[in-house]
């Protein structure tokens, strides 16, 4: 049999073959398959023609598998079993009794927001597997959503209209000061801030937000370090290397002795959860969004 004939084999033919083998004759198989007897006969004849072998011996006492028909029917049963298993896997993924959920986020969300939401979600749906990927940049989180590597992503708002988004929280930026600093109150002026070497994040859009805020002052400010890791920035402040501007969640936990002040001008980042708009999402995605809402940090749906 050549490759062309093999590609003509249909699952419906394999189902009919198995039914005839189980029932022992064409009429009983037709009744079982809710088909006409002629349709059953045609399916078997077409399969035999495609394979180039006789699968069934026909006679007054019914239809019986030939030796090669018996071997091929065994393979047909395996094919149909695999097809059923594929369907079960798909149904598990679409339901809430199994499957997986993939979340892309950044460190401060993974540390301060996700644990409570995951705990609530797992209490209700223990058989759904959750995987978390921490990303360095927000564009990489959104790209993971676009390319299907993540089901849910946490990012800055606003974002593009290719995503459906909900606001989670507004995170104020704070100023961290070295332990040797004598604080008169929890507010500093631009003039006082100009005395310190500044340590800021190098990750967009955090970096852009910080620089925009600093650009409004008439005092020359010295950005001495741009660092990727939040923990490194906090450690540098603890060692007296400068003052740092960070979102509050990114700075926590603040080490003992490090001073915490408000900035002279208010600055905040808006953190949201996003899914790809106009895409088919599993019930697990919406169930997790409900769990996130129940943590008390979920705002109304954000229009983009």
TrEMBL record:
Record has Transcription regulation as a keyword: yes
Record's keyword annotation contains 4Fe-4S: no
Keywords: DNA-binding, Transcription, Transcription regulation
Highest taxon, organism lineage: Bacteria
Pfam family, one: LysR_substrate
Stretches assigned to the HTH lysR-type domain: 9-66
GO CC annotation, single: cytosol
Single GO MF annotation: DNA binding
Family: Belongs to the LysR transcriptional regulatory family.
PANTHER family reported for this sequence: HTH-TYPE TRANSCRIPTIONAL REGULATOR YBHD (PTHR30419)
Name of the protein in its database record: LysR family transcriptional regulator
């Amino acid at each position: 049999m050549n490759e062309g004939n093999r590609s003509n084999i249909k699952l419906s033919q394999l189902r009919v073959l198995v039914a005839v083998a189980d029932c022992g004759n064409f009429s009983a198989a037709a009744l079982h398959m809710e088909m006409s007897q002629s349709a059953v006969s045609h399916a078997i004849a077409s399969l035999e023609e495609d394979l180039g072998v006789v699968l069934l011996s026909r006679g007054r006492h019914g239809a019986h598998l030939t030796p090669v028909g018996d071997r091929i029917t065994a393979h047909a049963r395996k094919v149909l079993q695999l097809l059923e298993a594929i369907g079960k896997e798909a149904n598990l993924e679409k339901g809430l009794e199994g499957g997986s959920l993939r979340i892309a986020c950044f460190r401060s969300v993974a540390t301060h927001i996700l644990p409570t939401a995951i705990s609530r979600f797992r209490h209700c749906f223990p058989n759904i597997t959750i995987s978390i990927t921490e990303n360095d940049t927000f564009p990489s989180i959104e790209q993971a959503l676009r390319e299907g590597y993540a089901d849910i992503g946490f990012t800055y708002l606003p974002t593009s209209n290719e995503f459906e988004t909900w606001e989670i929280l507004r995170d104020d930026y704070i100023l961290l000061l070295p332990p040797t600093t004598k604080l008169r109150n929890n507010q500093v002026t631009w003039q006082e801030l100009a005395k310190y070497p500044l340590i800021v994040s190098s990750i967009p859009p955090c970096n852009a937000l910080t620089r925009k805020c600093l650009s409004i002052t008439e005092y020359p400010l010295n950005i001495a370090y741009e660092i990727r890791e939040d923990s490194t920035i906090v450690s540098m402040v603890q060692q007296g290397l400068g003052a740092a501007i960070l979102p509050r969640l990114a700075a926590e936990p603040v080490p003992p002795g490090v001073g915490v002040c408000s900035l002279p001008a208010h600055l905040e980042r808006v953190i949201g959860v996003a899914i790809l708009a106009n895409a088919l999402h599993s019930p697990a995605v919406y169930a997790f969004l409900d769990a996130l809402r129940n943590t008390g940090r979920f705002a109304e749906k954000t229009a983009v």
